[in-house]
Amino acid sequence: MLKLHQFVRSWGVPNQSHFCCKLETYLRMAGIKYEIETGIPSMSAPKGKFPYIEDGDTILGDSGFIVLYLKKKYHDLDKGLSEAELALSLAMQRLLEEHFFWATMYSRWQYTDANWQALKQGAFLAVPLSIRDEAADSYRPVIQQQIYGHGMGRHTAEEIFALGNQDIDVLSACLGDKKYFLGDRPTTLDACAFGFLINTIGVPIESPIKEHALSKNNLTNFVNRIKAEYYQDLQVA
Fold it and tell me: How far is the C-alpha of 153 from the C-alpha of 76, rounded, in Å?
C-alpha cells in the first residue's frame, strides 16, 4: 500500500503543512488507498522535506510531482477538463503555492509572538518536549530567511497582508457560487485550495488574512464541504 510521509496531525486539521494537506486531500478525493507515517523529515527524504511517498520501489518527494505520479498510475482528478480549465487550475495553484503560501508563512513565523507560541505547540509535536523550544527557536531564523529570500519578507506587514488579501479575493471570485472551483466535481485545484485555506482559517494563527478569508462565505463554505465529505474520520476544527 502507498505510504504517505507527513507531519503529525495537529490543531484539529488534517495537517499543519499546506502541502501535506493538499496531497492527502488529493488521495482521498481520488479514492487512493494509503497509510500514513509521521515524524520529522530528514535529509534522507526526497528533497529533504515532507510530504513524500513510498509506493513499492518508488520514493518520490514534492507534492506537485507526486500528484503527477498519482494521476498517471492511479486516478486523474483532472481528466475531462478543457485546456482552458487546466490552464486556470495551474495558474491558481501557482498563486497558492508560490505567493499566498509565503504570506501565511510570515503570519506563522514572524508576525506576532502569540502566533509563534501557537506554532511551536502545533508544528513541533514530533520533537521531544525537553528540547522542543530549543529546536523551534533554532529553526525559526532558517524559515525567516527563506521568507526574506523569496521576497515576501522584504515587505512590511501591512504590505504582506494586502498581497495575501488580494489572493483571497481572487480565490473567492474564481470559486463564485460553484460547489468546486471548476464545476460540480473535485479536481486537483480543490485539493490544493483546501490544503491552503484550512491552514489559514482553521488554525490558531491570527492575521488580517485569516480575518479577510473568514469574511468570504463561499470560501468558508467550501472548506466546510470538503471537511465534511472527505474527512469524516477526523475531528477537524
Answer: 36
Co-location of 51 and 149 in the same domain: no
Q: Look at residues 73, 95, 128 and tell me which one is the last residue of a structural domain.
A: 73
Q: Alpha helix locations (H) across 74-207?
A: 83-95, 101-106, 113-123, 129-150, 157-175, 188-201
The predicted-structure confidence for 60-116, as pLDDT tens digits, reads as follows 999 999 999 999 999 999 999 999 999 999 999 999 999 999 999 999 999 999 999
Q: What is the pTM of this model?
A: 0.95
Q: Are 65 and 58 in contact (CB under 8 A)?
A: no
Q: Are residues 188 and 104 in the same domain?
A: yes
Which residue's C-alpha cell is 490543531? Answer: 11
How do residues 193-211 score in pLDDT, each as one tens digit? 999 999 999 999 999 999 9
CATH number of the domain residue 54 falls in = 3.40.30.10
Give the number of other Cβ atoms within 10 Å of residue 152's Cβ: 22
